[in-house]
Amino acid sequence: MSGHLLHNLLLFGRILRGLGLDVNPGRMMDLVSALDYIEIGNKSDFFYAARTLLVHEREDLELFDEAFDLFWRKPAGSWSVEWQGLVRRRRSNKPIITNPPLKEPPPPENDTDSNSKDMMTVIEVTQTYSTREVLRHKDFAQMSVEESEAVKDLMVHLRWKISERRTRRRRPGKGEMLDLRRTLRRSLRAGGEIFSWSYREPKLKPRPLVIIADISGSMERYTRVLLHFIYGMKAALTQRVEAFVFSTRLTRITRPLQIRDLDLALKNVGELVHDWAGGTRIGESLKYFNFEWGRRVLGHGAVVLIISDGWDRGDVELLDREMARLKRNCHRVIWLNPLLGAPDYEPLTRGIRAALPHIDNFLPVHNLASLEDLVNRLADLN
Amino acid sequence: MNFSSIDSLQSALRERNYIAERGLATSLYLALKLKRPLFLEGEAGVGKTEVAKVMASLLETELIRLQCYEGLDVHHAVYEWNYTRQMMHIRLVEARGEKATEAELFGPEFLLRRPLLQAIEQSKEKPPVLLIDELDRSDEEFEAFLLEVLSDFQITIPEIGTIKTPNPPMVVITSNRTREVHDALKRRCLYYWIDYPSFEKELEIVHARLPQAPEKLAKQVTGFIQELRQMDLYKLPGVAETLDWTTALVALDQQALDPVIIDETLGAVLKYQDDVDKIKGDQTRLILDRVNAGVD
Q1: Is residue A282 within 8 Å of A246, Cβ to Cβ?
Q2: How many C-beta atoms lie closer than 10 Å to residue B250's C-beta?
Q3: Of all helices (H) and strands (E), which one includes residue A336?
Q4: What distance in Å separates residue A191's CA from the closest CA in chain B?
Q5: How would you classify residue A83: left for phi > 0, otherwise alpha for psi between -120 and 50, otherwise beta?
């Protein structure tokens, strides 16, 4: 192979990486050896060979096609302008990682002398206790900035756990399935005489969780706190947690939430979502979810959390139909509604009325106490 | 059979009535040459499984199929000891007044060979095509195990030893994307997304597979299915549905489509009641009109 071609290949690989494709040196080597088997003069074969080796996600195919077109087919002159366009369209769900901001130094100690320090601690503890009690029951929407910061800190301590389901995988235990393998192994030690039977039982695994949160205008006062709550759940749970937000359309935010730094994660979510505080089209959004994502994320007995106040401006019949479809495809549908916290609230909006028959649990999510209640519910879904 | 170029592979596939896009032929060709597994994704019914079958027939070798499901474990994917036979053996030997040794109990004649072990053993003679079907149905535990097997094509059975092969089988993995398969596994493979075929390609497939179908019917069915794929349906029909539907219509002696027969046989095409309700009746007529305008 000519040095020129090799050089271009490597450059192309670097460019693909820059666009967010998962191209590693190993794959580039594969491509180089693949060139022994195809006619390099045949552009279409070269294109397909590069594509089958360098791409392994359907979502990346389109981006690859354009990059290939630009890199190998266009004369160099027209490059830079189109290139800018491509870079702007880079895989948007790939998190943009910058260095986490340095932690601010802790606030200086109060200038009290050491004698009164013990006293102070005692008072602080009781204060924290009572403020915490107040905070627990205060509606997220009515909190001051400081209060909502405090409540976010408290949220970190919620012990999320989702009840388990019996998988089809089995392990030795007390179940009803005979374990011939172990029975025979043990009998061999006794010279082939079977003294006791071994059994197998289903292995338990936590259920996957899917969160679909409403970020439309009417939910705005809750959105920030709820995003923290979603982030906290995702970080705390070991099983798969998929997160989506919607107002007029649905956006998957699972990837940006995977970052360890909470502020950066939320910033990335912010950049990904284009319809913050817009109108609400629950029906359309759920339909999009069912059609595009349902089959991919609802397997293995998933639990679905929908967070919304149910103010829907879309098609109510559609909402009814899509809720029914969603219900059929998962283990449990839990609807969290911040308005449910108000004592005089009745679920009368058209959206909620359409959705209610398909909901397993209809719960409030307006304060910390309601989240604690949710923790207990999720741990015991039987 | 050895292929010298992508062209020869593509036309050999065509001779066996498998109409492959150039891209798929390239992936298959490279999978053979680079001895790498091929990972096929695509909607249901676009012919993913068929690829492995036709490759086996093309290479004049055996097809070994591992159907994945949740909880699939080593004992069903690789090997298992035949415990009932072992117990019988113990009793028989006892009846002769002797004692069975472990070495004879765990010998090859008591070994049940499951698909992965079969594939590796047979590869020593003539590498088969190993189809790992619907990998997305298995769980993460199995995926991790598979990754190991695919990286060095050897299997260790504690009682017997390590079984390996210098010539790996041709591996075809399929997934319907009901779950995201781990990146590490996909990275080991060549990747190809099988799309729905164009009208011309699909008609070619119908001709190749069902030569007895009347020309007009074949065109209408293909056109109708192509129209359906543009619609807002929960489950779009695949090529499998096109072939099923054509077969059904041929069995009913239909020479051409008409609205009544479409509504009566729509169950062969659409698999969700919501979708059937949406298309049946008025829509059927509208789509058929559009199709006929294109066909004539």
Answers
A1: yes
A2: 17
A3: strand A332-337
A4: 8
A5: alpha
What's the pTM? 0.80
H or E element that contains A51: helix A43-54
Identify which of A38, A169, A192 has the shortest CB distance to residue B100: A192
**DSSP per position, A211-267:** EEEE-SGGGHHHHHHHHHHHHHHHHH-SS-EEEEEESSSEEE-TTGGGSS-HHHHHH
- B75 near A CB under 8 A: yes
Q: Return the percentage of chain A with pLDDT > 70, whole number.
A: 84
Across A292-315, b (16+ Cβ under 10 Å) vs e yields ebbbebbbbbbbbbbbbbbbbebb
For the four alpha carbons of B184, B185, B191 and B192, in that order, the dihedral sign comes to negative
CA A19 to chain centre: 22
pLDDT reported for residue B99:
81
Question: In a 3-state reduction of DSSP, which class is residue B267?
Answer: helix
Q: What is the DSSP letter of A72?
A: I
pLDDT at B27 over 90: yes
pLDDT tens per residue across span A347-379 = 778 888 889 999 999 998 888 888 888 888 888
- CA distances for A127 relative to A121, A134, B49, angstroms: 10, 11, 66
Asked if the model's pLDDT at residue A381 lies above 90, the reply is no
Q: Which residues contact A267 (CB under 8 A, 6 or more apart)?
A: none
User: Strand pairing partners for B193?
Assistant: B41
Q: How far is CA A167 from the centre of its chain?
A: 22
- pLDDT at residue A124 tops 60: no
**Rounded Cα distance, B136 and B149, in Å:** 17
Determine contact: A299 vs chain B, CB below 8 A. yes
Complete DSSP assignment for A156-190: TT------EEEEEEEEEESSSEE-HHHHHHHHHHT
How far apart are the C-alpha atoms of B69 and B176, rounded to whole Å? Answer: 13
CB contact under 8 A, A48 and B41: no
Residue of A37, A38, A52, A94 to mutate when probing chain B, most B C-beta within 10 A:
A52
Contact flag B27-A167 (C-beta cutoff 8 Å) = no
Q: What is the pLDDT of residues A59-107, one digit of tens each?
A: 889 889 988 988 887 665 555 556 666 666 555 444 444 333 334 444 4
> What's the length of chain A?
382
A181/B81 CB distance under 8 A:
yes
State both tokens at A42: 């045949």
Dihedrals phi, psi of B97, to nearest 5 degrees? 80, 15
With vertex at residue A342, the alpha carbon angle to CA A338 and CA A348, rounded to the nearest 5 degrees, is 80
Measured between CB atoms, does B199 come within 8 Å of chain A? no
- Across chain B, mean pLDDT equals 92
Tokens representing residue A322 in the block: 């899509």
> According to the model, what pLDDT value does residue A74 have?
62
List, as ranges, residues 224-283 from B with C-beta within 8 Å of A.
Answer: 234, 274
Residues 6+ apart with CB under 8 A from A286: A212, A319, A322, A323, A326
CB A337 within 8 A of CB A308: yes
Interfacial A residues in 158-177 facing B (CB < 8 Å): 167-170
Which residue type occupies B71?
G
C-alpha dist (Å) from residue A122 to A113, A128, A208, A364, B80: 15, 10, 43, 34, 65
